[in-house]
Amino acid sequence: MMIREGQGFVIQTAQDSPWAGWFSVQELDWVNLIRTNPSMFLRCLGEIVAFLPGGVSILWNAAETSRQSSPALLTTLENILLHLPGVNLHIKKPLRYDQIEVPLNAWFHSPEAPDGDLAAAWRKGLIGWVPQQNSGWSLPGIGHASTDQKDCSAGMLWGEVTIPASAVHHLEIENLKSALEDTQAHIERVLSHRINAGAWPQSIPFRRRKTTWRLTLTGGWEFQLSGQSWEALALDLSSLQGFLSNQLKCRIHIGINHNARIAGMLGEQAMRLGLPWRNSLSLPPAPPSFTPGISADPRKTSPLEARASIPKSIAALLSDPPVVLLRVPVVPSMKGISAFLRGLEVQPAIRWLPPDMPPPGPFHAEISWDPAATFPAVADGKASHPKLFDWAE
Length: 393
Known about the structure:
- The chain has 393 residues and is of the alpha/beta class.
- It contains 12 helices and 14 strands.
- Strands 1, 2, 3, 4, 5, 6, 7, 10, 11 and 12 form a 10-stranded mixed sheet that branches.
- Strand 13, helix 12 (334-342) and strand 14 (349-353) form a beta-alpha-beta unit.
- Helix 1 packs across helix 2 and helix 6 (173-196) crosses helix 8 (230-248).
- The longest helix is centred in the middle third of the chain and has 24 residues, at 173-196.
- The chain is globular.
- It starts with a strand and ends in a 40-residue tail after the last strand.
């Protein structure tokens, strides 16, 4: 993995390949491999995972695949895929798991929150939920994957560039454009050597015209506390997206970056170089770090709504919903979750973190997770008012 730092941005890419990607099992030849040679399917998957450090998202078209494979075989493959590092399995149908007992690399896509056995696994933090309101697939960390057209079997990212929300208006766009052009040209050169040497998996087609960049925000909480306008930020972000898309000749996905390490790098950079957006950071002795994501810090005790809030003007630009990790002291009830979701203006992708669920990394040296017991619980939805008089007295 390569990290390139510029004034107000950080670019993440691979050394000699695209950064991340998504693949549809239904469209690729993997369907035939699953039916005839599952071990070869896992080998092909392992090869592509090794090349994409940003992760691989698999669209598990279970309904289509099940007609060509035995249920026992698909259950075995699901058991393997759900535990592979660097792989996220995206589903629109319930898993074949009899009982989910450990955290899985799975995201369930549906317009409404999960129900039944799948809801129990979601409330325990064992799977994540993506509110899929439109066609295609909204893939956290990747972007939107459209599978409505022909030849939509895979998509890849050149890399991801992250900018603090408070820096977007002040950014020197030409510097960012030059850095992205240089980075893309370098990747294209070394990738061509890899392909010519036969060192690129033949089962995965690489299409330059369908490879995109991901433009992400972080430090949204500092932006909000500084009193700036989300509508103005949305205009600046949309303008930047159009400019970069025109210059780089590719699509630009807009998303949210939740990586604490990247947020810390950008905060330290702002302080070290005295950049204008450093004024939105907390004053010392607080660590010089932006809050990862666009909501309140998921590591610190705060109301659920603050950790799950997404400005409507920004949500309209996003290719994929922001991932919200909600630490709670007890496993929430579905009644309480339903009441909580109704109160949100924009619904994010949610993964619950009950007490027995360890918080994910990367961890920050100076910012730790608060104990689960200090976080507020999800209300059960049964509102009650204290009695004005106690007649029993």
